[in-house]
Amino acid sequence: MSQFWSQLVHTLTPYIPGEQPKVDNLIKLNTNENPYPPSPKALQAIRDETGESLKLYPDPNAEILKMTIADYYRVETNQVFVGNGSDEVLAHAFQALLKQNKPLLFPDITYSFYPVYCGLYDIEYQTIPLTEAFEIDIKDYPVECGAIIFPNPNAPTGRLLPLNAIETLLQNHPNSLVLVDEAYIDFGGETAISLVNHYPNLLVTQTLSKSRSLAGIRVGLAIGQAPLIEALERVKNSFNSYPLDRLAIYGAKAAFEDQDYFVDTCQKIIATREQLITTLQQLGFKVIPSAANFIFTTHPDFSAEKLALALREKSIIVRYFNKPRIDQYLRITIGTDAENKVLCDVLAKIVSTA
Ligand SMILES: *Cc1c(COP(=O)(O)O)cnc(C)c1O
Fold it and tell me: Could you tell me how far CA 185 lies from the centroid of its own chain?
């Protein structure tokens, strides 16, 4: 604390990201990164940019990347917003669109950055409990609200809300913005981007950090009707004109263009996920159905916190949340097949020798 802090800073409770340990040889299954490298074409595009052009500012509008994304999703370029990771895109959306005169709604168990943005931007919010089975029930979302946000699939549960439920939610709330955070949609869900042209109240965000293995260059995007994008541009251009550097613009563009690599790596992760679920069930774990690159699991006979510590002793790190309703669960990111085998062997040993 310091006398020089603003009043706002005194009130903030910042988000705590999963740890990025400095030691090698860890099996790192705690932050939902992709276990495979980025597309070789994306890496080449990034290398190609590391020349004298770096003395110049990048295109503040990242037009070439927006055009690629617009092409990919068959929308207009003015329906695409890009930012420095989807966390930044979300931050701008909170300020530009989710701050209204009535409370913002989101699930009680969800991405823990949402309440942090509410604190930063002084947004009133109300959490809506997931069902016992950790599902979003759209009937629980009152019509009277400022706006709605949730990840789909949800984090950290991995559960998917089907597209028809999202469409019903949009129809039930024609006067409220609904933001669908699709950080994990490529691992088994169907994107809501197909609904954007029918619903002026829909904004979809995505990231290149998970399914495109580019967490290190920080690129996120939003797609919605042009007036929503304009709101985001207004905030962005009042904050930082150049959120995407040259490496990010060209790396992200090449990643979107390498469809084969993207499909191949996503399919591998999905196959590994299904193997992991089968093994965990054989070991007595209960696993929440997942459409993401992680699973959420609990064991009736073992404390989740102790399991996380036992795994750590074997150099495997997973995510444990000491929070109501989920303090007996572990969130485990899907690794490579080799990492998955080590994880399963270690868990089998822990479960059999206790
Ligand atoms: C990882 C994640 C993000 C942020 O992704 P970045 O683009 O890396 O900032 C946003 N929402 C959810 C639900 C996430 O899990």
Answer: 9
